Amino acid sequence: MRVLVVEDEKTLAQQLKERLEGDGMVVDLAVDGREGLYYGEEYDYDVAVVDLGLPELDGVSLIERLRRGERRYPILILTARDSWQDKVGGLEAGADDYLAKPFHYEELLARLRALVRRASGFASPVLRLGSIELDTVAKEVKVGGGRIDLTAYEYNLLEYLMLHPNKVVSKTELTEHLYAQDFERDSNVIEVFVGRLRRKLDPDGELRPIATIRGQGYRLATE
To answer: What is the pTM of this model?
Structure first.
């Protein structure tokens, strides 16, 4: 999951970046509204965290401009402004959720995960597609009721594909959204991960849940 954090308190911003990365996310960090606008318009994100009291361009204006530019990913407001007027203003600008400072990191993480799930049409923290069941809280995966062990990379790959069912996802998209390392775009790293994941999900080769679309990428079938 790729996250944009726009926060001018540098210590808090760095703490958020480190903790989110520790939970397996790719994080881009902006310390003012104009930098946040550049990132938000230039790249595709799964979710964004935006402070309201930003220098250069305030958070409400940033959100409004992102929405006018047809950026549809969920946005969570994170700010010390806790009046109802600020909350209403942020939500009417196009934000999807609101969390006041001080906050517990675990609540922020839960809200971000919920926003991403809902954007993909899932209300429950447990994603189910065919015989595959993925618990986004426990980070456990079951196939046909039996638990399978995945590495962090394999889990992140499966979660992203399950959140985009029937969509053809390119290797470039997977690299940008899942892996902070600078993987070569033409390397076979993603192919290796997909191959391992296929064998664990379908050791007998009967279900074939992940299809390779030649020259385009991969697709997880819903059935």
So the answer is: 0.89
